[in-house]
Amino acid sequence: MTVKKWVGKLHLWLGLTSGLLVFVVAITGCILVFEQEIKSILRPFQYVEPVANGAVLPPSRLQAIAERQVPGKPAKGVNYGELGHSVNVPFYGASPDYYVQVYLNPYTGEVLSVVDEEADFFHFILHGHYYLWLPEEIGQSVVAYGTLVFASLLITGMVLWWPKKWTKSSRDKSFKIKWKAQWRRVNYDLHNVPGFYALFFSLILAITGMIFGIQWLANSIYWTTTLGKTMPEYRQPLSDSTATRRFSNPGDRLWQRFYQTKPATASLYISCPERASESIAVSINHRPGTYYKTDYYNFDQQTLKPLAGEGPYFGEYKKAGLGDKLRRMNYDIHVGAILSLPGKILAFFASLICATLPVTGFIIWWGRRKKKALKPQRRVAKVQTV
């Protein structure tokens, strides 16, 4: 058996075993690419009319108003959007799972909407994309290693696509779809040609997706891009719970410090600690709509002393090293947001093509299988002796 035939067998069986998973993950990925754009239309309460020189309410006031809308649940933080956006206060927890967001007018404290995110369509799709609607501890590994199989399919597919000789005829077959041919040939071209054009972007989607679910791969890429550093486990710095509290509303103090100096185009998040040992997390996102260009700070809630942390999700973005910046960018690369709308369009079509590959591949295999079954058997004439 030649190498190409062996690769073909491997491509076939990997495709048959992972096809349904790839289809579901790719289709849900298509839907999620434009989640923010769709929600900006469906959720007008995300926006408010800016008030010139208007006084914005501090986080303690907004937290108290929001907690009255979700009785018995503690707010996790207060997120001030960029100018012209409402404030949202998230509530989430486990056993049982809940995720609620309260949207408020930052100037008046008026409750604009209370959204149960667990019942949201996109939240349902997200669970399918991440876990195939299975329990998280099972589904995440299934999706992650299924994506690893898909990455292998892309590479073996490239080997099978590569022509033996580069002639005009082979170039036409490799780069063009013969729309006027019989439907089986059109299906074959739809498997090969778009698959080739989307190969680079599909590999990026696969690798950035696997980083979320395969720890050894995430650690290996971090080690390589940081020239030998080990990814530290994320641990939020702790406050000194034995110290005397100096401020009645420490979150408000930090808000006054950061809100006045942040750009109008940036968003500001301040956490709401539930225990005395928790630090107050403050983050400034300089490019809302993405997540990578964010500055992360932690403060002792008793003294407001700055606390240091390790890893990519601490400190200012501009001071982070290459490996830490790439780790922060991973999600935004995965959804294409790193390149704004053009990047999202690329991610959408790459995901759509990925979703078609298992379908067209299965049709190719099924057609060849039927063809073999219908192929007449060669009969050997028997010599009759007299």
From TrEMBL:
Instruction: Cite the InterPro entries for this sequence.
Output: PepSY-ass_TM
Going by the UniProt record, its keywords in alphabetical order are:
Membrane, Transmembrane, Transmembrane helix
- Output the superkingdom of the source species: Bacteria
Spell out where the chain crosses the membrane: 12-34, 142-163, 195-218, 345-366
The record's section on PROSITE patterns has: PROKAR_LIPOPROTEIN
Q: Name one Pfam family in it.
A: PepSY_TM
Record flagged with keyword Transmembrane helix: yes
Q: Which PANTHER family match?
A: BLL7967 PROTEIN, IRON-REGULATED INNER MEMBRANE PROTEIN-RELATED
Tell me the protein's name. Answer: PepSY domain-containing protein
